Amino acid sequence: MKKIFTFCNLIPKKRLFGLLFLFLLCTNAFSQTVCRPVSQTNSQGGLLCVGLDIDSPASAYDNDAGLTTYATLTNAVGVGCFVQETLTLNQTAKAGDQIVLYLGTGNGLLDVGLLSNATIQAKLSGTNVGPSVALNSPLLNLSLLSGNSIAAVRFTVTADTNQIQVQVGGLLSLLVSLRIYDVRLDFAKPTVSGGLSQTICSGNFTTLTATPAAGTSLSWYSSATSTTPLITANSYQTPVLTTATTYYIGVTRAAGCEGSERVPVVVNVSNPVAPVISTVGTAICSTGATQQTTLSVINPIPGTTYNWYSVNSGGTILASGDTYAPTVPVGTTNFFVEAAIGSCVSPARTQVAVTSNPVPALPTVLTQSVTIQSGQNATLSAVASGAGVTLNWYDVATGGTALLTNSATFTTPILVATKTYYVEAQSATGGCVSSSRVPVTVTVVNNPLGTCLEANSQQTNFNGLCLLCGSTNPNNSVDGNPATAARLTIPVGLINGYAQQTLQFNNPGRAGDIVDVELEVPGGILDLSVLNYISLATYNGATFNNDRV
């Protein structure tokens, strides 16, 4: 019969041993193994020295990453009193390697000045390697850790070294007590191609390469303390990255442990954001065949370059910058903008459509001359050229608020004084208006120009086709003087064009009344055939009486 043993079947002593074994196994598996000393010797000397002591010497290298345990070297006042501890490394350090000592005094804030009474001496199997160095020497790299009670002292060896000796005392005894929290070996650092901070474009990978110091080997890690390397080699190819990632290089000389600190290599990931373009400048009015405009990026990101193109991929850069001022023809012109950081560009270019609409021509005023009596109003008219062009009426030459929009005619309010109105043309798209407004003056007279039976106000109009038509002295037809006359002129052969004058009476006429109109063709006898092109009609206000002859 097969018997199954479990952990619980073991006797208590063996179970305890098993737990201890598992604890040690897990500790070794999940913590970084740093090169430290493996043994030590210590000694003391001097004359009349009382109280010299070295306490817990092995705690100087007991793998306490938290720096809570320490060896204590206690000196005394006397003649040449000293205490020293010699720590033997697990391997031979080479020139350029560093021995890192974590030191303190146990008296709160560390007074670096007191460290002049303590020295470090490199050795190779008991033989001094170079001179000893005071702990406060500028030859050492000393930095205070958080709390300023422990200092990390970096001592760079100049030749093969397998021992380090720390001594307190000598001729003077300023420093009474020195704590050694830890001693670690740190190997010469590799040279990383491209530097310790590199940048790639999002969605790409890169190959990181480092050149190790002579006699060292490199492993790449995903964290500063992980024990399983990503690869043991001089180069490491990252996966495809979309966020910044830090990799760490561990340096070893002999198998089984690595240098005190790994070398971090930061891979920054550049992911330029497609720009957002302001709508300002995308709809413009052109006074000619071309017109300049200015386009701009909304909230440009510092460090990002914006490139402007005429195509959505490839092509030649038209300009670079947060703004671009192209000259475009009438119609719609497309531009495309990409964001770039170094060689990285946004996934797609942002399209910008610029629509340039022509500025319409000045409107043609049909009501060339208007004279009314005080207390009357007048109707003004004009025409615009171009499809969909509308007319707006104002009482100021620039600015102001339109009195009437989208209308070819405008009826004034009751007027008691002469007033000038202005008309502008506006395009059907883009809201482009004519370069200026055309004035139309309504002349207001306070007293009738003629008798109560004579017309006393007039409006002279031309239709849009009557380009060469004109009028002379239009008010002479209502001045009550039969010796003067208003003149209307049209070119010979004009088709579908006309000039007209509307005469207004103070007193309304009635059916059966007679209106006398005196006409003359200047320069000769009236040709009756001309009368075929002249017509008369009456209105009651704006209502046609259907009596044109």
TrEMBL record:
Signal peptide span: 1-31
Matching InterPro entries: Ig_7
The UniProt record lists the keyword Zinc: no
Boundaries of every Ig-like domain copy: 189-270, 272-358, 360-444
Source organism superkingdom: Bacteria
Keywords, alphabetical: Signal
The protein's name in its UniProt record: Ig-like domain-containing protein
Protein's organism: Flavobacterium circumlabens
